[in-house]
Amino acid sequence: MSDDARFGLLRHVRLPGPLRLDGGALLSPVEIAYETYGTLDPQGSNAILICHALTGDQHVASVHPRTGKPGWWTRLVGPGRPIDPTRHFIICSNVIGSCMGSSGPATINPATNAPWGMSFPVITIRDMVRAQALLLDHLGVGQLQAVVGGSMGGMQALSWAATFPERVRAVVAIATTARHTAQNIAFHEVGRQAVMADPRWRGGDYYGHDDPPAAGLAVARMAAHITYLSEAGLTEKFGRKLQAREAKSFGFDADFQVESYLRHQGISFVDRFDANSYLYITRAVDYFDLAEEHGGLLAGAFRQTRARFCVVSFDTDWLYPTAASRGIVQALNAAGSAVSFVELSSPYGHDAFLLEAPEMNRVIDGFLRAEP
Amino acid sequence: MSDDARFGLLRHVRLPGPLRLDGGALLSPVEIAYETYGTLDPQGSNAILICHALTGDQHVASVHPRTGKPGWWTRLVGPGRPIDPTRHFIICSNVIGSCMGSSGPATINPATNAPWGMSFPVITIRDMVRAQALLLDHLGVGQLQAVVGGSMGGMQALSWAATFPERVRAVVAIATTARHTAQNIAFHEVGRQAVMADPRWRGGDYYGHDDPPAAGLAVARMAAHITYLSEAGLTEKFGRKLQAREAKSFGFDADFQVESYLRHQGISFVDRFDANSYLYITRAVDYFDLAEEHGGLLAGAFRQTRARFCVVSFDTDWLYPTAASRGIVQALNAAGSAVSFVELSSPYGHDAFLLEAPEMNRVIDGFLRAEP
């Protein structure tokens, strides 16, 4: 089954590559599914690349073809918004390793004419960025006015400045980190083990069967989802509120609203995401350590870039807390980069960047308009 | 297969009951596996009940018959320790719902002559305490000098003072809470879903097969284990350190030490614990809300007791943080109880109470010796 058939009609390009990956493998072809909004100006100066998070996709500001839901960042991207197709040429591509049309474990390995499965090469955040650079070449975009992302998207934004310093004039890195911590890795490992523990995973070779490892993937999503929300936010939203019934059931149905909510998060996720992609992308994020790629010193990653940086954190984000953003800012200062940093207040934890965040919008709007 | 055969020779009593449970069911018989250390003095005044945590057992100060490991709290309990068999009559029983010999899903339902499985009634923390009271009756212990517990053991200790106010002279509640929060419930729900997602769980009816839902239970344990450790502790212990190999494998083996550690935690757990018991005990903990049992006001739980309280929290415990202990202390103050409260510093998060904690020992020793 082709990706186009599985995931709807996408803008999609098959580039010959080969793309040399950090792990040593050569990826060829390099398939990239993407969306663009707006028009590149004659000077080629108004391109903004949006990088999506772990389970995100290219549909940043347009309807998702499978779920029918609006784009995932229409609060920030759209007419009248800080990133505006009437002013900017906006590009958002599905990262390699993912499952919305870009090369990943569910796409066809031309050498075997079968899905890659677990023979797909392990990738890194930098590999995702390299693939995006190939797409920009294809689109005729030399330099980006800005690269913008939250969470794993923020990692890509930082990696862009480090990997292609001459191609980025500004970086917006939101709710992110320059390295995955032991606790971050631990949560991802729980998710991977949940997927792999599902007998339907079949060593990743489940595409021929109409029976994917949905139960394991749902558990993985549930565990991860807890890290996206703040303890205070969960308490405010659910507390110990029971479901519609009046009293405890003294059984194992979802008695508490938070249980029902989490189960829904798990179940709805498996409809839109591929289990193997979850393994590959969490692995890429766990491998992310921008300092390590540059001699062990984070400032080293920013020595070449002349980009301006805008770093945003949220006070209740315990996945990538403000301390992680401060580490980025200190390294940028050490490297002599221009950086503005703000910690915003929100009850919503890590997910805050995807929700209504007027202050974040103001910060990003001001930062993008301030271009020298 | 009898529990004695599965879990080694235990001190075990089969009490006729029936025990009326919070859920309405009558449990009969009530089997309790327990250990005692020391001798009850002629006045019957030196009995100390130790309550174990979620996956703990009665082997508080003696070798575990299955794992061969020393008792789980020998740092606090033993000759020359704050709780000392040369001075105290120490009792520790396996909670009902568990799998070390007390009535639980793995024991035999006399009505069917088969293991209860998921037909075992859902229990509460208070039900565990009621079963312990039956054991004390059996042992001829009228009143406890103290009831002592950490984590879920602390919940039982608090519930003892609320449920049998006349039978407890002192309560030591460590690293615990008076109610499970939405985030606490969420983590437990992930664990339960991981178990139930394992096809080997078979609706809880796996005892006849020699093939328990080990993979699901291991994932549940991994997720829970993260909550027992602090982020700082994980970083100090593991950081991003790789396994013995020199570089990343660009594969899905355990590259990082923290992955290998977590996998080990999961795998070793399934050798000593029953998956259905994990469901029942996490449910009991999620149901725990001491205020709710007493008209919605926590102070109401402590109106009857004249016990002295000692409440201990650890500064890096994010499962049951100091704020949860403060809530208990405020309610005790409101109820006019004598309470001493200390927050101790430790890098080890929730698990700190099980580790070397000289300050905790000093606090508990002083508190127990100060009896009027």
UniProtKB/TrEMBL annotation, chains A, B:
One Gene Ontology biological process: methionine biosynthetic process
Keywords recorded for this protein, A-Z: Acyltransferase, Amino-acid biosynthesis, Cytoplasm, Methionine biosynthesis, Transferase
Active site location: 151 (nucleophile), 317, 350
Pfam families: Abhydrolase_1 (PF00561)
Range of residues in the leader sequence: none
Family: Belongs to the AB hydrolase superfamily. MetX family.
Full protein name: Homoserine O-acetyltransferase
Organism from which the protein derives: Sphingomonas carotinifaciens
Higher taxonomy: Bacteria, Pseudomonadati, Pseudomonadota, Alphaproteobacteria, Sphingomonadales
Gene: metXA
